[in-house]
Design goal:
By secondary structure, the protein is α/β, with parallel strands linked by helices. The protein has eight helices and seven strands. The strands form two sheets. Strands 3-6-7-5-4 form a five-stranded mixed β-sheet, with helices on both faces. Strands 1-2 form a two-stranded antiparallel ribbon.
Length: about 220
């Protein structure tokens, strides 16, 4: 079971005053429960509360349309991660920075739990991690973070080769998840596409390549 959060910890995560967190708990707006005389919040419920938009004031503008599957802001090239755990932390931090995650540690744990059951290293230096957890329901649309590691990582891939291209799929568990996974598999299985991604000089170049390949796959 995940560690329950105190209101002080909730305030730190939300970057608000602890009195604000207490007020939200008392009014029932925050998904908090009393344990004796103390308020406690489950981190996954806090994550869902935030990403569902219930933390947004009624007079604020509506949220923008869902982000595309590939974007230059979610491509990390020549990343210095030395372990799979460090790579997942970088990906979760990237999603949090982009406003797609509130509590990145939960997502890292979900990705590691998936890897513990079976490696997502598909061979040829590629891995396509994706969580099998209810945390997937927090994503409104499929998102991919590509991490190209500076030093290949040990993923226990099926061909026993280390991995330098890590496509992390963050998606709801529905047909969009399967379609996005199929797109990533087609891109990752093509030697020429892999080589172009390995040679890309900046995130914008890699994103343009992925977006083009995604549109091509969609017409196939």
């Amino acid at each position: 079971m995940d560690k329950l959060l105190t209101l002080r910890e909730v305030a730190d995560v939300l970057q608000v005053n602890e009195r604000t967190a207490l007020r939200l708990a008392h009014t029932g707006e925050l998904p908090a429960r009393r344990v004796g005389s103390q308020w406690r919040v489950h981190p996954l419920e806090l994550e869902r509360w935030f990403t569902d938009g219930r933390a947004v004031a009624a007079d604020e503008p509506p949220q923008e349309a869902p982000a595309p599957l590939f974007d230059a802001s979610r491509i990390l090239l020549a990343h210095p991660a030395g372990t799979v755990h460090e790579a997942f932390e970088a990906v979760a931090d990237n999603l949090a920075w982009g406003g797609h995650l509130l509590y990145p540690r939960l997502y890292v744990e979900a990705l590691l739990a998936r890897e513990a059951k079976m490696s997502t290293g598909i061979g040829d230096g590629v891995a396509i991690p994706h969580a099998r957890s209810e945390i997937n329901s927090l994503f409104r649309a499929p998102l991919c973070v590509l991490l190209r590691s500076k030093t290949p990582l040990e993923f226990q891939a099926i061909d026993h080769r280390p991995v330098d291209l890590v496509f992390v799929l963050a998606a709801p568990t529905d047909s969009s998840h399967l379609a996005s996974l199929a797109t990533l598999m087609r891109i990752a299985r093509d030697p020429a596409r892999r080589e172009r991604l390995r040679q890309a000089q900046d995130p914008a170049e890699a994103a343009a390549l992925l977006q083009r390949e995604s549109r091509t796959n969609g017409r196939a």
